[in-house]
Every structure is written in C-alpha cells, then in structure tokens.
Amino acid sequence: MKDNFAKSLKLVLVHEGGFADHPDDPGGATMKGVTLATFQRFFGADKTVSDLRNITEAQLGKIYRDGYWDKCRCDQLPSGVDYCVFDGAVNSGPGRAAIWLQAAVGAVRDGGIGPETLTKVAVHEPGNIINGMCDQRMTFLRGLRTFGVFGRGWTHRVAQVRLTALKMADAGVQAQPEEAPPAVGFPVLRRGAKGEWVVKLQEALDISADGDFGPKTEAALKAFQDANGLEPDGIAGPVTYRALGLLP
Known about the structure:
Layout: H1 5-16, E1 19-20, E2 30-31, E3 34-35, H2 36-43, H3 49-53, H4 57-69, H5 81-92, H6 94-105, H7 115-122, H8 126-142, H9 147-171, H10 196-204, H11 215-227, H12 238-244
Antiparallel strand pairs: 1-2, 2-3
Helix pairs in contact: 1-5, 5-6, 5-8, 5-9, 6-8, 8-9
C-alpha cells in the first residue's frame, strides 16, 4: 500500500478541533485529539496542560503516526479501510479499532492487527469492511455513559467517516482532505447576529428559535460552553458547533 498517512491525518484532524477539557470526558484535557496522558507518554511525564495546548506539528505527527497509524498497520490496509481504522483508533483507541476491524472480517477479536487479520481483510470487499466497522463503532459508542453528552457529535463523525471511507474505497485511492467538511466556512456568531445559523444554534441549545442572537441566546450559549469545558465567551465557532453536534 502507498502511504496515505498525511492525507488521512488531515481528515482526522477536521473532527478533532482544538483544546477541550470537559469534566465528563474520561480522557481529560485534549488538544487536537491528543490527551494529556498520551502527550506525556510520548514526550515526558513533566509535560503540562499548557504544553499540550502548544503541541507542535512535529509532535502531533509523531503521536498519530507511531501511536495509531503504524500500530494499526494502516499502510497494509486497503484505501478507505485504512482511514476508517485510523479514525476509529484515534477516537476510541487502537485496540478497540482493531476489534471492530476483526469483527467486520470474521477474525479473532484480540485487539491486535496481525497476519490472520490482514489475510481476512484481503478477501473481503473494502466497502463491506467499512460498513461493518462503522456499525460496530456506533454500537460501542451508544453503550457509553457519556453518549447523552457527546452522542450527537459522535454520530455525525461516524457518518462522515463512513461516507468518506466508502468514496475512498470506490476510487481505490486516498480521498483528498477537501472532501471532509472544512473547519472554516461556517459563520462565527455572537450577540447581534441574525439568520439561519442563529436558528440552528438556538435549536441545538433547545431555546426559542427566532433567528435573533440576543441576550437570552448569549446566556444559554455561555452556560452550554461552561458546562462542556469550553471557553464561555458567548461566541459560537467551529469548536462550539462540534460540541453541539452541528459539525461532525
């Protein structure tokens, strides 16, 4: 297989957003999908939350390559399947992603992608593997106690991964990152804004949706941000949209 890592990483990072430290998230402080524990494992136990906030591109690439892509032997997987496994590994751990892959191809579910699993992968259609993995992934996520908090965003993410991975498999090549929903191009909303996206925001906040970003909307948004480990600035951008499930 050709090396699809760089393009797949760009796809994954579309979903990861920036810094978050939600009190209900068992992973704790996270930056671009990297938890503090993972960051410390790679670069030293003395690394702090502040260091994590300022993670470099080189550090990010090393963690994702060594800790997820190579660990799941993604270079030996078909296009589309590699991205599907990689995104699952980043979101829920390499062992869990391996189990979803093994379940999809009928291999022993031991959480390690070895020769037997790769042999099984080779005789299955990539599209069937992708659908099987995404179904397994959603079953797992729905069983988590935090699904009520994060479920909407997780569901959007898996749906987008499924769609993109299937396109990649059909083409037989790695999809370009532009096929994933970009982190830009969505309006940044603050008090005084009006229009369709204000309605979407209000509906997601479960308040009266009149399309007018006034003091009540601002108060509801700040309360949501504070409760979800985000900066309670009353401004809605991509990170807040993802937390609300408005972006995958």
